[in-house]
Design a protein that fits this description.
Blueprint (H helix, E strand, L loop, with lengths): L2 H12 L22 E3 L8 E7 L4 H6 L3 E3 L4 E3 L2 H4 L7 H11 L4 E6 L2 E6 L4 E6 L17 E3 L5 E3 L1 E3 L5 E6 L5 E9 L5 E8 L14 E4 L9 E2 L7 H7 L11 E6 L4 E9 L4 H11 L3 E7 L7 E7 L2 E9 L3 E9 L1
Parallel strand pairs: 14-20
Antiparallel strand pairs: 1-14, 2-13, 3-4, 5-6, 6-10, 7-11, 8-9, 11-12, 12-13, 15-16, 16-17, 17-21, 18-19, 19-20, 20-21
């Protein structure tokens, strides 16, 4: 192979903005799951969050202000070389520059059907298809350095191929934190994923993650056209039917009303993703006289739960979903 062609081939593997794979790579590297969900970790006392990881160079990366995620700061950043419009000579140089700049711990990259996570510490391991809560109180060995053999036998430290939605991963950050994460969803264009992560507590070696229900994760494009609450006054009949809930007065919320049939309609409420927001909503429903009747599997996604409440002979069905930045509350009520 000519030196110029060899150098080009190496760059396709080494530099994150053009990471590549051989065409004959195994199909297990596909990132495709038809239904996406997160776990309701409000009761988890460990530091945890939901985070979107956009691909470098994607419109979403520019919108969110970066593609490398730092677990310490909870923020995304760009690598220092791309900010200076410089090309690294190798992955080693790139990784060193990111580490010195303290830009972050992890980023996502996809090439066609193939998906990668890159841990800048070099230490990341796949745990298979699980929920985070499956690892509650289990003793876990620290992940070892992982090496991906690229084209021409080049060894890429910290590059993990075969990333799939629904699978969990254990990693060490650049400042020696231990993180358990699960790929909760992928975007419609395949250029970003959403992860749910938990940071190991001071006891070390275990994660205390209590059993919790799952919440449907919606791909954001499904909710285009939602009207901000400040531009959509909640009709008096809705307030009378449901109650004077605080979410109806929150100008940061977005609300949409649409009919299902002649007897029922749906109210879609989007509210910022923060701890306790669903618990507060449920508390206000009870204070408004709605009594729990029970739960049942969703007809759309059987693994998800619908909460049925009654008041004065009327029935209200609640289902909760989430995106990387907000909760979605689905209310089905009688007209």
């Amino acid at each position: 192979m000519k030196p110029t062609l060899l150098l080009l081939t190496l760059f396709l593997l080494l530099v994150p903005r053009c990471l590549g794979v051989e065409p004959e790579a195994e199909p297990e590297a596909e990132l495709a799951v038809p239904q996406f969900f997160m776990e309701d970790l409000d009761a988890c006392m460990l530091r945890n969050a939901l985070q979107e990881l956009p691909e470098q160079g994607s419109p979403q990366a520019h919108k969110l202000g970066g593609y490398i995620f730092s677990f310490a700061s909870g923020r995304l950043a760009f690598d220092p070389l791309s900010l200076e419009d410089k090309e690294p000579s190798s992955f080693v140089e790139f990784r060193a520059a990111v580490t010195v700049a303290d830009a972050g711990d992890i980023y996502f990259r996809s090439v066609g059907r193939h998906a990668f996570l890159v841990a800048l510490s070099g230490k990341i391991a796949s745990l298979g298809e699980h929920l985070l809560q499956d690892f509650d109180s289990l003793f876990m060995e620290d992940p070892q350095e992982t090496v991906y053999s690229g084209d021409e036998g080049e060894n890429l430290v910290g590059v993990l191929p075969g990333i799939q939605a629904g699978h969990c991963y254990l990693m060490t950050t650049t400042d020696n934190r231990t993180i358990l994460l699960r790929v909760a969803s992928k975007s419609l264009d395949g250029r970003s994923i959403t992860i749910q992560w938990v940071e190991q507590g001071p006891r070390g070696r275990t994660f205390e993650i209590p059993k919790a229900p799952v919440i449907e994760l919606q791909q954001a494009r499904k909710y285009e056209g939602v009207i901000p609450a400040e531009a959509f006054r909640v009709p008096d009949d809705i307030v009378r039917k449901i109650g004077a809930l605080s979410v109806f007065k929150d100008t940061r919320a977005a609300i949409r009303r649409k009919p299902i049939d002649e007897e029922h309609e749906v109210l879609l409420i989007s509210i910022g993703f923060k701890r306790g927001v669903i618990a507060q909503f449920q508390k206000e429903l009870r204070a408004s006289g709605w009594l729990p009747k029970g739960t049942r599997p969703s007809k759309v996604h059987p693994r998800l739960v619908e909460h049925v409440l009654t008041r004065g002979g009327k029935e209200l069905v609640c289902r909760y979903a989430a995106s990387a930045g907000s909760y979605m509350i689905h209310l089905t009520l009688e007209k």
